[in-house]
Amino acid sequence: MERIAENLYIVRGSGYSSNSYIVTGSKSYAIIDAGLPEYSEKIIRAIRSLGLESYPGYLILTHMHYDHIGGAENLKKMLNVQVMIHEYEREYIEKGDPLNTVALFFNISNLRPIKCDHALHDKEVLRLDGLELKIIHTPGHTIGSITIYIPSSKALLTGDTIFENGAYGRTDLPTGDIKLLIRSLEKLSKIDAELLCPGHGDVFRGNVRQLIDLAIKYAKEEI
Ligand SMILES: [Zn+2]
Ligand SMILES: [Zn+2]
């Protein structure tokens, strides 16, 4: 675990696992993405070392892909977190649909259903003891992909929508759509951000708008 901004920590994913981020309030916390199941212990240790395990916690999933949700069941069991995903992907995780969660890449034929405790919608604001997390619906990589914006640290947590080198998430998997992705990136480019925290790879600090504009340029060339 590494602190990347005030109230914001990264637990780096390795191999195929996504990164996880921990956002800390004074008496509550949010985990953004669970990563693969073998990665849960690392996240639980991080929550314990921050002294947060007895407080209410939320697990916000940026989208339904297995490399982001695989550890959700473990985190629910060990930390009793409330699981949240965009309303368009609730059904997929609750059905344990292996096609739409892309569990097939990981040789998992019977993905266990994950109960969604709260379905998120665009523009929803979650509060951790006064710290705001804004939910932005950014479909394109998948239909219910979200980006989380933390105004106090000017951070965007983008899941697989855009990465630190200006690459964007693939759109050839079920429910992916390049045109929707471009529209989502255009939406993100209007946000005042200095830190981009993607679902894979490194964090980007600096001119986030320029980075997003670069991704939009690449994406438009693909159409
Ligand atoms: Zn993905
Ligand atoms: Zn991913």
The Cα radius of gyration reads 16 Å
Number of domains: 1
Instruction: List segments where confidence is low: pLDDT < 50 over at least 5 consecutive residues.
Output: none
Indicate the structural class. alpha/beta
Helix fraction by DSSP (H/I, runs of at least 4): 10-25%
Q: Strand-residue fraction?
A: 25-35%
State the name of the first-level CATH class: Alpha Beta
Q: How many H/I helices?
A: 6
Q: Could you say what the CATH topology is called? A: Metallo-beta-lactamase, Chain A
Biggest β-sheet: count, sense, barrel?
Answer: 7 strands, mixed
Biggest sheet strand order reads 1-2-3-4-5-6-7
Bound molecules: zinc ion
Instruction: Note the run of SSEs as H and E.
Output: EEEEHEHHEHEEEEEHEEH
Going by CATH, what is the homologous superfamily? Ribonuclease Z/Hydroxyacylglutathione hydrolase-like
What form results from the Cα inertia axes? globular
Topology, pairings included?
Elements: E1 2-5, E2 8-11, E3 20-24, E4 29-32, H1 40-49, E5 57-60, H2 66-69, H3 72-79, E6 82-86, H4 90-95, E7 118-120, E8 125-128, E9 131-137, E10 146-150, E11 155-159, H5 178-189, E12 195-198, E13 204-205, H6 208-222
Helix pairs in contact: 5-6
Bound molecules: zinc ion (ZN) (2 copies).
One zinc ion is lined by residues 18, 65, 67-68, 160, 199-200.
